[in-house]
Amino acid sequence: MSKVKYEEKNRIGIITIDSPPVNSLDREVFDQLESVVTQIGANVNVIIIEGAGTKAFVAGADIKEFPGLAPEAGEALCTRGQSIFNLLAELKQPVIAAIDGFTLGGGLELALACDIRIATARSQFGLPEVKLGIIPGYGGTQRLPRLIGIGKAMQLIFTGDFISAEKAYQIGLVEEVTETDALSKALEIANSISSRGPIAVKAAKEAVMKGMQVSLKEGLSLEAKLFGDLCTTEDKEEGVAAFFEKREPVFTGN
């Protein structure tokens, strides 16, 4: 049985990690996740990733793979995980993590590779690798400080402590805490995004993600170029016409 399931509903792709009991990231999960991500088509507007069940979103790497791990194998393990999370982060479509339950170690690193994180109130977060005598290896030391700031990230990484969903919201680790189930809220957001101009949304993601890696001057130049590129699209003409005609636009992705 597949440990990573994928389905599409109304141009929204849903990836489900189903690796009982806590959806750990073993080699099989990584292989299947890579296969799913690389096959997502341009017709999909938004991606949601969730963990099966209510115990954990993803509770980390498969620690059974760690005993006796040689330096070369340890480095290869990390670069493998990083490369797959990079594939997810570099998708043109927005990616939403629908989080319910424990989100620890590699699970938090997976969530960090997403663009938006929605969590249930009972969810818990942490990077506990130092308790095992190692460090986060799937991007946690790099993505977390970029998201919440260096000081808060260092506190979480150095202590390995868990934090609540409310605390995660307060420090900017998650965008919203929901009292309903995370998937329903994620679908609500995904449907809203999907109703917008799909080319424009992808361009907006490119502007933000690439702009964060360059100077402000270079980022502004990229923003202007992407805006100019959108001026040639049918969606731009439809969006402007719909505004003046006081109706909902019908975007075609062209």
Can you lay out the helices and strands and say which pair or pack?
Blueprint (H helix, E strand, L loop, with lengths): L3 E6 L2 E6 L9 H12 L7 E6 L4 E3 L12 H19 L5 E5 L2 E3 L1 H7 L3 E5 L3 E3 L13 H9 L1 H10 L3 E2 H6 L5 E3 L3 H13 L3 H14 L4 H15 L3 H11 L10
Helix pairs in contact: 1-2, 3-4, 4-5, 8-9
Properties at a glance:
four-stranded mixed beta sheet, alpha/beta, 254 residues, six-stranded mixed beta sheet, globular
Description:
The chain is of the alpha/beta class. It has ten helices and ten strands. Helix 1 links the parallel strand 2 and strand 3 (46-51).
Oligomeric category: single chain
> How would you sum up the global shape?
globular
Strands of the biggest beta sheet: in what spatial order?
Answer: 1-2-3-5-7-10
Strand proportion: 15-25%
Radius of gyration: 19 Å
Give the % helix: 40-55%
Average pLDDT: 95
Kindly name the structural category: alpha/beta
Care to count the β-strands?
Answer: 10
Task: Write a short abstract of this structure.
Pfam families: ECH_1 (PF00378). Keywords: Lyase. It is built from ten helices and ten strands.
